[in-house]
Amino acid sequence: MKGSMLIISGPSGSGKSSLMNEMFKKIEDIYFSISTTTRDIRDGEVDGVNYHYISKEEFEQDIEEGLFLEWAKVHDNYYGTSLKPMLQALHNGKLVVLDIDVQGHKIAREKFGNSITSIFLTTANQKILKYRLSNRGTDTDEVIEKRINNAVSEMTRIKEYDYILVNDNFDETLKKLTAIAVSSRCKVSAIDTEDFISSWVY
Ligand code: 5GP
Asked: Pick from 25, 55, 87, 198: CA 20 to 30 A from residue 174's CA?
């Protein structure tokens, strides 16, 4: 097995983290890629669990040293995926899950092609997203406005993804998400075909 990658993108407030956390309980051999960010830590978040939180200077140093598979500026902050732990997890046959934005998805797709299965997760409409972000109470009005504007521009790139999930019912969306994650492991690109055929013939 070569391992495979599942990318989940979508606006903050679409329910990504809660859905992924539930999915992780249902599937074995998953590796969640913990991104590095320069944004402030939110109440309830833990360094090294949700993100690795570093300064802008440290992030720029890591970019120069080529430590990221991809990185992007989202809502004025840097976010990036560290290359080394992810490659190790793939080598160990894990399903590597990345929660990254549309810019990161594009770069990862260019580098890993068909080994990636990607999902764009969103709400049924913009009003619901605004309501969820306001209700969460973690962001100022200004930040919410930025997140909504970002979501509007991200929505225009849905066609770059394999799947779209509209999270209007948590349990139903979780079922679909889990089904996609399970089937992503059955892609031919997830196995070493030559190895498989030679051991099958033997
Ligand atoms: P939040 O600040 O709500 O945690 O995340 C904001 C956005 O950054 C989300 O759309 C999330 O998917 C994206 N993001 C998180 N980590 C990464 C990363 O490593 N790379 C990229 N390109 N985007 C990321």
From this structure: 87
pLDDT band at 2 (very low <50, low <70, confident <90, very high): confident
Counting from 1 in the atom list of ligand 1, the atom nearest the Cα of 33 is: 19
In this prediction the pTM is 0.93
How close are the terminal C-alpha atoms of the chain, in Å? 18
For residues 31 and 95, is the Cβ–Cβ distance under 8 A?
Answer: yes
Q: Across-strand partners of 109?
A: none
Write down the H helix ranges in 71-125.
83-91, 102-112
Pocket around ligand 1 at a 6 A CB cut-off: 9, 12, 35, 39, 70, 72, 74, 79-81, 99-101, 103-104
Atom of ligand 1 nearest to the CA of 11: 10
Question: Residue 179 pLDDT > 80, yes or no?
Answer: yes
Q: Could you tell me the pLDDT band of residue 189, with boundaries at 50, 70 and 90?
A: confident
Domain boundaries, the chain: 4-33+94-201
Q: Please give the pLDDT value at position 168.
A: 94
CATH number of 4-33+94-201: 3.40.50.300
Ligand 1: residue of 99, 111, 133, 149 to mutate (most ligand atoms within 8 A of CB) is 99
In this predicted structure, what is the pLDDT of residue 197? 94
Tokens of 93: 């046959």
